[in-house]
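Troubleshooting: if your tokenizer reports a length mismatch, compare against these two reference records.
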Amino acid sequence: MPQAQWSAKRERQYEHIKSSLKQRGKSTDTAEEIAARTVNKERAQHGESKTANPKTLHDTPAPVRGGKRSHQGAQGRTREQLYEEARRKGIAGRSKMNKAELERAVGR
């Protein structure tokens, strides 16, 4: 259990996500990291954490979203995700770009 403040429900959720990822071929370290991030985001969205990123609070929860942002298919990543990648890469003029322009700029 990575976090002492997790409830029994969150611990079960963590173990379930971790085992599912390992079955899909992810390494133990990667599975643990993804599971912990997922559980912490769920906790933040449900008001169980002291602090949370505003984007996390306004984002659609994963169970509701149902894989709509799996980085595959026509929609792919959101504009906000593309914008953050453009910011990390230092792409100029990103604030005025739409989603299609950001996709071209970040090269994916």
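Reference record two:
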Amino acid sequence: VVQFASFGFDASASELVMAFGSGAALHLPADELRQASNKLSDYLRSEAITHATLPPALLQGSQKLEGLESQVLILAGELPKAELIRSLAPASIINAYGPTEATVCAATWSCPDGFDGAIVPIGRPIANTRVYLLDDHG
């Protein structure tokens, strides 16, 4: 598991639990690797990272993360574009939503093989969580 989020950000908690809760190694990349997707891609491959939580903005418009077909990529922090989701295939993609509402995550969506939608869903509530969708009138 790569520790991409800084320790002062709530997402770091899920990265820590994901690694240590499963007995995996937690990798701490240097700051310059976190800023450039091409350097990050090389790091993920060289360290045999299998799970990463990344912001879509880091990956949007950049070269494809090549050689990471067995990777689980959790996209969080903002809405990913459908084109980005398709460009990351065949990696397993999870859209994580809801840090503002529930501190790390409130809902997740796992991208199905062959996804061809125009909009990436926020998904379903995680365990012991309810999601309320409200209109302008509450």
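Descriptive notes for reference record two:
- The chain is about 30% helix and 15% strand.
- The beta strands are 51-54, 72-75, 92-97, 107-110, 124-125.
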